[in-house]
Design a protein that fits this description.
Oligomer: homodimer
Helix content of chain A: 25-40%
Order of helices and strands of chain A: EHEHEHEHHEHEEHEHEEEEE
Number of helices of chain A: 8
Radius of gyration of chain A: 21 Å
Distance between the termini of chain A: 63 Å
Largest interface: A-B, 78 and 78 residues
Number of strands of chain A: 13
Mean pLDDT of chain A: 91
Low-confidence stretches of chain A: 264-274
Chain lengths: 274, 274
């Protein structure tokens, strides 16, 4: 950075699940102040739509990249910020949940020696967003209204036995569960294995929610029991929620009671599960 | 409802952790359209500040109530909506995470017989918000960047042995963990017991984040190891994050790597844990 130059800033921002109405004002403001926006192509497109919807703003350079190059993208963003640019890295949902925030810190930690000092000194901020499981839960009712866990099914990131062990322990703990990245073209079998695991550890009447592309024009919500679930219900844009053993239906709504294991706190409802 | 009247609507809305800049536009719009706002006093005050910041709007009736009367509050909101009013129930954070959404569905399920049909027929919607753990994680870096779980420590809602078992299983699964409601005046001992449990199941260098009142003027963030943690670091306004066994520091940032248990994916960093 030359003397007198504005220092660079790297903002990692969550765009929420899709709708502009679910983007926080602080994320919108960060995009207005950006000189460079970096991200996976569909998220850069979404950021550009938001930026255009806000009207007047200085020119922005849009840096869209392919999926699965998170570390390269993080390094590109850090290099731009080190040149005193105002860089926003966009993620869908929340940047801290299976998205770009961890990749940025990994890139800082693994910085090339000649960049390490500059990258560690950067003004980095992370702006939270509405993550997919919470948007999906809201549409379905309150399936995550009691203790829950959140698991990324992408086995690019960890071996399948780690996932299997976590699902088993989560079922033993009777957590409600949220699963991200249930299927992809390269891993069509992952979700089949998950359903088999869930069937080994949970009762067949356990409620599930398949929430696809929530808050976008492609939104689709399916509620069913574990017995009724089939692998084709999940695709790359689906988040899958699994209730705990108390999760129930009231009308079209799925909810998990706040109380658990306390005598007399929740009268058994007749006809409240399918 | 009389013929010709607008049907009532019940919206359960998440105000985020505190800052107006973290309230989504759809929640702000719901408040603008409300005839009645129902909630715990400090959240009603926050909704009123937001509503005032937006300028002109029709008159709103503000219904503030005390803590721990969630079901009464839900019933009041349902009764108002059944009178064809536009009711917004406000929660801090996300309404589906240990907040009012589940209470509303519990109240619908347990409706008095003479109200059951009307309450089930209501136009109910849940609007997600930035929940405390994600706001806290963003401030700290990306401590929830890998599989994690979320546990409410309030033992008003479940017996302590259920909590203890879940923490043990979560540690076995090597989940990062987020704890809500770590302490209250009525349960000062709960967090002491949690620390003892964590020390029984996790290594002393495990990283923790104590995030108090994130995004408000009272915000305070403390990062320490499990060995250094003490019960006075948490109060009623604190969310506590615990990393998994790979969670590390880079500069002032705490992050959990995306990769787990894969040979060679993450070089061990020297000096990256305290």
């Amino acid at each position: 950075m030359s003397p007198g130059q504005t220092p660079g800033r790297l903002t990692v921002a969550g765009l929420g699940p899709g709708a502009l109405a679910q983007v926080t004002p602080e994320v919108a403001a960060a995009l207005q102040a950006a000189t460079d926006v970096v991200g996976y192509l569909p998220y850069v497109e979404r950021a550009r739509a938001l930026w255009q919807a806000q009207g007047q703003a200085p020119a922005v350079a849009w840096h869209a990249s392919d999926n699965r190059v998170e570390l390269d993208r993080a390094r590109q963003a850090l290099a731009l910020a080190a040149q005193a640019r105002q860089v926003v890295v966009v993620s869908s949902g929340d940047p801290g949940v299976f998205a770009m925030a961890a990749a940025v810190f990994e890139a800082i930690e693994q910085a090339p020696p000649e960049q390490a000092t500059a990258w560690q000194a950067l003004d980095v901020q992370v702006l939270p967003g509405i993550t997919a499981m919470l948007a999906a839960a809201a549409r379905a009712g309150a399936p995550l209204g009691h203790d829950f866990c959140c698991i990324n099914l992408s086995d690019n990131l960890k071996p399948w036995p780690v996932i299997a062990r976590r699902v088993q322990l989560a079922a033993e703990a009777d957590f409600a569960m949220a699963f991200y990245n249930p299927r992809s073209r390269s891993r069509p079998e992952g979700f089949v294995r998950l359903l088999a695991l869930l069937r080994a550890h949970c009762e067949p009447t356990r409620l599930m929610v398949f929430a696809r592309a929530v808050s976008t024009p492609d939104e689709a919500l399916q509620v069913c029991t574990l017995a009724e679930a089939s692998p084709d219900m999940a695709d790359m844009r689906t988040v899958v929620l699994v209730g705990n053993s108390s999760t129930r239906l009231v009308g079209r709504w799925v909810y998990t009671p706040r109380f658990y294991g306390l005598e007399g706190t929740l009268p058994a409802a007749s006809g409240s599960t399918p």
